[in-house]
């Protein structure tokens, strides 16, 4: 595979040509910010140079790359000294050679570059400018995405068959030490008023020892009384970095349901931001994270309710079976002043199956409105002895009892996938990871 290599060694504060043009001259402080992190600057240059310059690049994509370039100029690479990443070590990405990956246009069903409708192109441009919940990885995706997959569902259209977006890693080659290939898939979903659609994102893997970095972004705008059911499955290599942004804007009376199961990656991080923009809005989030090796599974979520009679439920579960594995949950639900008669609930439950396994959870429910029904809770434990004794009293050995209880713990989330074939596939994957010697077909 051809690509531009980014070496972790001997980094110098080289400023890309486009970035040089953007550097302000009036402020010394601003100039210093441009060179605050040589690694980020060189990464930006690598990503910009890896993309072909074409006058036919759609204006929204051009504007997105330009805005992302500006954002990167003053953004340092996150370390564990930064509070949002206190429990997430990303140093192994920084210490690797980054080789951008550009998938062929054929894998993007509905590429923005192939869009021929000027009015829809103008709408896409307007909607893209309304997403402001960036961090460094959002900006990296924006500057490096080779195209943007657009899923557009017109008003009152019900799509009967699910749309399945399947992401595969770069073609496996003999890995070079400290080298990672980087891909930046980006999706924009527009579900117009009264429309319904199911979308599945699956990030799979062919080689559990293949190092690479997937840096994905998913944006959705759900119109009035529209419905988006979103399934997200992540089973990437145990040597990979998987970082995902999901940002959703919901109009009044709309419904967004997310079911997520993540078990891959040396680092798997999902940044999830949802904003309810009207009354009678429904948001349901169900997540299962599994760490069976030296892995970090991380969910940072934010849900903002600003209008009356909103409804939300968030269920987060994680299982850590390795002494060096960890899970992170930082969930924030904000019920603002005008979100009266809101019904919001948040629950996080964690199973730690090794003495030195780690979980860091911070459920957070901020309530400003005074006429609400809200609750949240957190539980961290091993399996309860009373449950094991119940099985033993009925002649079931303790190892079998533990397997059954662990599968049942995760099954509550898996059962929420709307598609039976996805449920069966995920059950088989989880059982194989938790019990490699078992026959997954018996689950």
From TrEMBL:
One of its GO terms (biological process) is iron-sulfur cluster assembly. Residues 181-409 form the SUF system FeS cluster assembly SufBD core domain. This is SUF system FeS cluster assembly SufBD core domain-containing protein.
